[in-house]
Amino acid sequence: MNCTTVIKRYSLSLAALFIALFLLLSAGCSQGTREEADQGSESTAAIRTSVPEETESVPTDTEEQTESAETQIPEPALGDPLDSDSVPVYTGEPFCIINNNDPEFSEPQLTTVSYEYYSELDGLGRCGVCVACVGKDLMPTEERGSIGQIKPTGWQTVKYESVDGNYLYNRCHLIAYQIAGENENTKNLITGTRYMNKDGMLPFENMVTDYVKETGNHVLYRSTPVFAGDELLARGVHLEAYSVEDGGAGIRFNVFCYNVQPGITIDYSNCDSRLTDGTAAQTEGSASVIEPAVTPSQDEQTDRSAQEVPATCTYVLNKNTKKFHYPYCDSVDQMADKNKLYFDGTRDEAVEMGYVPCKNCNP
Asked: Does the predicted TM-score (pTM) go above 0.70?
């Protein structure tokens, strides 16, 4: 055997040895990789089954906070009703200031949780105190619907030429629709004069609405009708408001709005009325005419009953939106004077002029 043969056999032996070692190491690595892969699959499966179980059984911190906020509604800030005898005498202004304009809310009543409360009607069917902690979340997101079907205590449909919009009485929201979105709620509607509704209450309602929309803060708002004895018509409405987050810096008032109409004398026991010169308003169902306060003769009664009463009405036309409204509609208060046009005629005539009926008051 020569040297060349020995070297060849030695090389082959080494190659065989290397191949055997390589195969052995490869088998070990493959087994370890499979074992690790199997362990990883088991771990992933465990996570996938445990996460849904934890989600179903354990509420998140956000859910706990939300549930806690929803359940922590405070007691309504009812307060003590204002006695009608303690109200200052009406001297020609639509409202007067009570308690130096400081609302009488206690510290525990101040909250940033939005809520609203309406008292049950009393034995005479009259409304009581209404309270709301007004936030943006309470405010309406759609147009107000009709409230013509609601007849608060003492309700009459009475017209006077001297009254803005002609109608003496409005259905007045104790907490305005623009504030809390509450509309055809009998616990929130009283019979009020046009003067109280527009000149007394509306400026304060607009003030609260604008503040909440601009700041996002809350306003504690209380509206209380004030009745004397068993009278069906309130003598007025006591309004109090306080902006919570800024300690009353934005909104703070305590006022009494008089349920009166300049130039007209009102009987608060039954809502009957007459001009101060002795002219009375006679009502017939949903329509009314102004008549002298004298008893007509039999012939005059016969002549009047034979006459046909035209189905006319006073409407307010909006020259901008091309809608027409009853004068007592809330939309009329928000209408710019330049767009406002009073029209005496029939509904069909208003339609023929190109106007469409308002969806709120449904004229």
From this structure: no
